[in-house]
Amino acid sequence: MFEQYLRNKIADAAIMHFMFIVAVSLILPPFFIIKLINTVVRRYRYSMDTIDMTGKVVLITGASSGIGEHLAYEYAKKGACLVLVARRESRLREVADRARKLGSSDVLLVCADVSDINDCKRFVDETINHFGRLDHLVNNAGIGSTYSYSTDVTKYAPVMFAIPHLKKSKGRIVVNSSSAAVLQPPQAGFYGASKAALVSYYESLRLELAPTITVSIVTLGYIDTEMIKGKHESKEATAEPEANSGLGAAIGKDFPVMSVEPCAKAIVNGTCRGDTYITEPQFIRVLFLLKYLCPELMDWFLHKLLLKKETEASPRPRGNFHESSHVSTFTNEGKLD
């Protein structure tokens, strides 16, 4: 009796695996072929007929520096009207002046803190009062520490206030996340968890809002910004370097760091193409694939590279989550640098 039962179980398992292999063999090849053709066609159409952003209104949070600043410049080159949101008014004015020179016909400055729900409602309302519409909401603002445990993933106010206006214009939401959401590098647990929550939220929101509003999720690797250099905005909105800190101190010179200008250009071009996912630098996609197919290899790679480099650069004790000198703030505009 037992032998018969065992043979039946083995036969069932064999049939199940065989059917799975057949299904994968039949479904995946045509799926990837269709996806490849669709990607080529979209890129060709975009190169031949660039989407006209002239006069369209783009709201960018965290626009005073880093990726947000250069996103403003790229949108300005396309003739978009800009709403620049950040806490540092002097830096915003500098960014606005350059954006006007690059082609933006109208730039609205709003000094606001995205962690304050009242500020979030205010800068969306000021956008509508000034322009009467909103086409792109770029959620970029935010600072984060790989060591701080005070990571807030509950504030999604800007996108909530903006959705009714984006529906009218059939607009787009762009959210900056991080490759840490997928790769989960060592000693960045809370940072990676917040970014994974961000991606999860916008994946769900993308399906809820489709097809009226589209969502582009950006997952970035190491970008040459203030965070890489160990500078973080304090609560007084001033960029302050931390001694022997920043991801740059951890990765040393052995890991490629992308310049912020081509990164911002790739994000804006991908957004205008209608890409759902935008990953920069491009090689990060290979790491994503390795993470899913060969997780042990990625674990070894990240452990050897990041932990070793961080130990050499800043021999801080592990497991002490109070060692960061600033408090990290995470909003739905989550910063991906």
From TrEMBL:
Task: Quote the Gene3D superfamilies the UniProt record gives.
Answer: NAD(P)-binding Rossmann-like Domain
Which residues does UniProt assign to the signal peptide? none
Stretches that traverse the bilayer: 15-37
> Could you tell me where this protein is found in the cell?
Membrane
Domain of life, per the record?
A: Eukaryota
A Gene Ontology CC term for this entry? membrane
Which Gene Ontology molecular function entries are recorded, alphabetically? oxidoreductase activity
Membrane topology listed for this record: Single-pass type II membrane protein
Keyword Heme part of the UniProt annotation: no
Where is there biased composition of kind Basic and acidic residues? 313-325
Question: Cell membrane among the record's keywords?
Answer: no
Q: Where is the composition biased (Polar residues)?
A: 326-337
**Family according to the record:** Belongs to the short-chain dehydrogenases/reductases (SDR) family.
Task: Indicate what this protein is called per its UniProt record.
Answer: Uncharacterized protein
* Lineage of origin: Eukaryota, Viridiplantae, Streptophyta, Embryophyta, Tracheophyta
